[in-house]
Amino acid sequence: MESFRLLIDGFGGALTPVNLMYALIGVTLGTLVGVLPGIGPAMTVALLLPVTFTVPPTSAFIMFAGIYYGGMYGGSTTSILLNTPGESSSMITALEGNKMARRGRAAQALATAAIGSFVAGTIATGLLVVAAPAVVAFAISFGPEDYFALALLAFTAVSSVLSRSVVRGLASLGLGLTIGLIGIDQQTGQARLTFGVPQLLDGIDVVIVAVGLFAVGEALYVASRLRHTPPEVVPVGRAWLGRDDWRRSWRPWLRGTALGFPFGALPGGGAEIPTFLSYAAEKRLARGVAREEYGKGAIEGVAGPEAANNASAAGTLVPLLTLGLPTSATAAIMLAAFQQYGLQPGPQLFDHNPALVWSMIASLFIGNTMLLVLNLPLAPLWARVLRVPRPYLYAGIVLFAALGVYALNGTVVDLVVLYLLGLLGYAMRRFGLPVAPAVIGMILGPMAEIQLRRALAIGAGDPAVLVGSPTAVVLLALAAAALLTPVVRTVLGRRKLLRTSRED
Amino acid sequence: MSAPDVREKRRWWRPELGLALLVLGLGVVVVLGTLDVSAAASRLGLGPRFFPTLVGGAMILIGLFYVADVLRGGRGDPEESEDIDPDAPADWRSVGLVSGVFLGFTALLNLVGWIAGAALLFFGLSVALGAEHKVRAALLGAALGVGTYLLFVKGLGVSLPAGGDLSGIVPSAD
């Protein structure tokens, strides 16, 4: 098998002492930011972009991938010990996980989450090894019209899945697309939307946008309604699993993996839907003790969703690496990182930079193993991290945000732009606009434009070229469906809401 | 809080309407702001105005739907987070303080340098967010200022202002 041989070569690249160090830094940082509220993997990768200029790309991506996977592990710790989740993908884990913790089974909840994440992450990365070359073989024939349709599908799917209100998801996407327009047009050299401000000619850096929307926005939002009671963290010792818990966990792990991977690979699939589906499936399949325990802290309700969560992270890497299509905020930032190195993810990346791609994939196996070691015995340490007093936490987050943004160009103008984007991030949080579509729109928008113009140039301006290939037609139909499905759901939901409000 | 007639008159206005109008307004800005962009479109297929017009048009459409949704009583769910008390009224004093501290830091950074600037930023923000031990906040801020300076400037070669930059007042020496 060709990809198997390449993977072995990848292990050769990833197992050097330097790259092992970057993997360790990545997974440790990832777990830390996953555990900490107010900061996530997307923002962490964005903040690290300016300081990784000097790092070779393979090492940088090994670190970024470690942060991505680590964030998934860390998020589960927060949801189990603190109830309210750090990342939206860990929301479901909190349902049963926190109840388990309150019943004195925190160690088992953390263990099934960590081991389940390891199992799911390893299997899903294996699936990535198999799926990626297949997608590449299919995508090698894609024309610009197919890529444009793919981008549209990502736009509509992400906007409609991540928010309960489609119009708010689309508004967020539009804000991101608009920010992406600012600056010099790459094909003609014309300045667009710069309003004569010379600093805007290069556009607004993705680091400033991501850090402003995530870090500064979150700090302002927290300032506006800070919970003044100290967080109630369930105390925990070393994470471990009894024989009975193993017996109850392994099937949910596998089922969660089977749900998580394909959803992660779909544009807009993300981690929210498969974790929820896994939770519902385990609830339905629960028998005996599990059935009685469901709703009071059943281990199946932690094992399944956590596995689904991690498998979806691996799934996200399939479209990112093979098509250059980001389906989550973190993936979008990683795409920006590729561009910073002058690399364009897609079928060509596997051809031109096989060493980079396969070392990164190999590092995922290594990082997963490191994370298991980091999370089982060190659970008490991460629990202590959760007790960081919130004023210091958010002051520190803003300090690092300012550092990362200032380091970009060394000008305070960027700090003012950062603050303004922070205000936007605040408003988006306050009014329920999801942030991820904005980040994806900003990064994918300019690429969609290039593909659209290329397609129309080939077709001599005839818009029919956009539906010229069967692939493009299917993708555009899916994009339309992604928009229309939630509209139908909203109408049904509104009817339900009307009923419940009448009962009040 | 306010007289009933005022409330009656302003009932249609909700803060979210501001955000919806911003989306709508940005759509208009995108369309109008790219009107003056011109290039030899014939040679390159589509010119640089086509895509912005598309985005701007879509934003106007989305903005109209958004405004309509808010006027009809729709509201977004405020994002949930560990540290958010969803029932608390908005604490504008804290938001103002955080903003003031951050903008003050921006204004002073080149003058006082990274170490002092970062220390003040950390101290100011943590006090604004309700840190009880002011001395501890100040010490932590100083430690972070020095620590990040050493790590990023000496260790990673990132350039941060050393302070004393009076450019605009005194011409720089080199």
UniProtKB/TrEMBL annotation, chain A:
Which residues are in the DUF112 domain?
20-440
Answer whether the UniProt record assigns the keyword Transmembrane helix to this protein.
yes
* InterPro entries named in the record: DUF112_TM
Q: Which Pfam families match?
A: TctA
Q: Which domain of life is it from?
A: Bacteria
Q: Which residues span the membrane?
A: 20-39, 45-69, 109-141, 147-167, 200-223, 320-343, 355-374, 394-421, 472-492
Keywords assigned: Membrane, Transmembrane, Transmembrane helix
Q: What is this protein called?
A: Putative tricarboxylic transport membrane protein
Species annotation: Nonomuraea pusilla
UniProtKB/TrEMBL annotation, chain B:
InterPro entries, alphabetically?
DUF1468
Membrane-crossing ranges are 17-38, 50-68, 101-125, 137-157
**One Pfam annotation, family name?**
TctB
Tell me where in this chain the DUF1468 domain is found.
18-161
Note the superkingdom of the native organism: Bacteria
Sorted keywords for this record are: Membrane, Transmembrane, Transmembrane helix
Query: What's the protein here called?
Result: Putative tricarboxylic transport membrane protein
